[in-house]
């Protein structure tokens, strides 16, 4: 029987893309891409190992020094290289095959993890040595991150980018739920050296994934000219012409400096405020990851209904309020509930702003603009962690974290009163192909 004609005033549904309407299926749509799925699971295994180490490092530093300042200093040394190396890393991400870049940087990160394990297993207990090895890892990570975040775009078509970015954030936060739980058990039973060794071994999974994937990366439309600093200045000039990218970066700086240090301060709160051991400390970090996992389907599953600007407006307000609730929690159980909300708020804001930048940026500028965003975020994070570490030693962790949450909440209220500002997060993709090869 022949197809019935479609009235001219009605769309032909047979021409519509097969996209789920809302909810979990829509949120997970990037998994239909084989290479993204392989990379996602490899990254999940590797990042789980990284989060085991991310809890073990501040734990051993606090055990050795009994100072929140040293915990903040570890964060500073871990992330400050990413800010300093941003111009070079962004140019590398735009100039070279990102898959090959990641294979090299992930191999170097694996070697630095082996070095940290060997030092601790060999009896080294010097905070200075630990910080030096953390800084070395930070150097390799600083080169890695812009290529890593841009690489997601090389694995999926544009219509699946929001799902891929949100799932990439989900993977990171699922690892944050799994890693600290494993770390707590290992620290309480086997000791820190096994935690460090597990991280070193976990890099094998992401290296295997990178060896298996095939990218859909488009051919370069032009060749970059000039040194990497000149290329980076072009990217900064370009960023100023894109209000949506500017708003995304500003919000990321607020989150990095005021909210993100709470991930390291769980160690301080466990020891000084709630007075619990490593297993209960690990559960606090698991709560952060669980909150992010619960928020992920909302972020990418309802993106056609909930704009990025609206999502950031309410999630940032909830995030700030939850940080205050955690800081002032009268007992461990209430603090744990607050951390679930903190994790969900963090995932929503960071995923939405990261997606905004990824969607808006012109393809020829992607690596350098992502590097600029990473520089801003990772620059604010260690500075905020270091400052909050100093204040915590002077006025106490509760007042310090509550104050940071209050400032973040005030910023969220101000942005909420300026919906025209947050609406720029929903700007369209810039189709500029870069006439001068910049």
TrEMBL record:
Sequence segments annotated as region (Disordered): 1-21
Keywords: Cell membrane, Membrane, Transmembrane, Transmembrane helix, Transport
Entry's transmembrane regions: 38-62, 68-89, 101-120, 126-145, 194-213, 244-268, 280-299, 311-328, 334-357, 369-387, 399-417
Keyword Magnesium: no
Membrane topology: Multi-pass membrane protein
Subcellular location, principal: membrane
Domain (Major facilitator superfamily (MFS) profile): residue spans on this chain: 35-421
Compartments reported by the entry: Cell membrane
Name of one Pfam family that matches: MFS_3
UniProt GO MF annotations: transmembrane transporter activity
PANTHER family noted in UniProt: INTEGRAL MEMBRANE EFFLUX PROTEIN-RELATED, STAPHYLOFERRIN A TRANSPORTER
UniProt-recorded name of the protein: Major facilitator superfamily (MFS) profile domain-containing protein
Species assigned in the record: uncultured Acidimicrobiales bacterium
């Amino acid at each position: 029987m022949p197809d019935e004609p479609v009235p001219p005033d009605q769309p032909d549904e047979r021409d519509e893309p097969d996209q789920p309407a809302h909810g979990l299926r829509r949120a997970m749509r990037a998994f239909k891409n084989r290479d993204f799925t392989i990379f996602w699971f490899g990254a999940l295994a590797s990042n789980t190992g990284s989060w085991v180490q991310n809890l073990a490092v501040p734990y051993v530093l606090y055990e050795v020094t009994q100072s929140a300042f040293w915990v903040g200093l570890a964060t500073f040394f871990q992330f400050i290289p990413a800010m300093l190396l941003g111009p070079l890393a962004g140019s590398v991400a735009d100039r070279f095959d990102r898959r090959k870049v990641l294979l090299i940087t992930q191999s170097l990160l694996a070697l630095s993890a082996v070095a940290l394990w060997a030092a601790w297993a060999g009896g080294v207990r010097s905070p200075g040595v630990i910080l030096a090895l953390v800084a070395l890892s930070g150097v390799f990570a600083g080169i890695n991150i812009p290529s890593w975040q841009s690489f997601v775009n090389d694995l999926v078509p544009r219509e699946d980018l929001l799902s891929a970015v949100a799932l990439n954030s989900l993977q990171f936060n699922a690892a944050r739920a799994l890693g600290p739980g494993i770390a707590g058990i290992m620290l309480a039973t086997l000791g820190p050296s096994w935690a460090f060794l597990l991280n070193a071994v976990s890099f094998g999974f992401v290296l295997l994934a990178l060896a298996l994937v095939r990218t859909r990366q488009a051919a370069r439309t032009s060749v970059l000219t000039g040194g990497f600093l000149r290329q980076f200045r072009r990217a900064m000039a370009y960023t100023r012409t894109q209000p949506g990218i500017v708003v995304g970066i500003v919000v990321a700086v607020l989150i990095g400096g005021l909210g993100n240090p709470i991930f390291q301060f769980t160690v301080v709160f466990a020891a000084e405020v709630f007075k619990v051991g490593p297993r209960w400390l690990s559960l606090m970090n698991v709560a952060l990851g669980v909150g992010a996992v619960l928020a992920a389907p909302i972020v990418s599953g309802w993106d056609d209904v909930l704009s990025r600007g609206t999502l950031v407006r309410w999630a940032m307000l909830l995030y700030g309020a939850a940080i205050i609730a955690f800081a002032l929690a009268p007992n461990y159980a209430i603090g744990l509930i607050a951390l679930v909300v903190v994790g969900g708020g963090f995932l929503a804001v960071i995923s939405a702003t990261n997606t905004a930048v990824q969607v808006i940026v012109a393809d020829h500028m992607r690596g350098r603009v992502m590097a600029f965003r990473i520089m801003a975020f990772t620059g604010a994070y260690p500075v905020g962690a270091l400052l909050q570490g100093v204040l915590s030693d002077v006025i106490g962790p509760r007042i310090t974290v509550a104050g940071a949450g209050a400032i973040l909440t005030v910023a969220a209220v101000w942005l909420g009163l300026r919906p025209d500002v947050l609406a720029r997060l929903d700007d369209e993709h810039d189709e500029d192909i870069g006439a001068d090869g910049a």
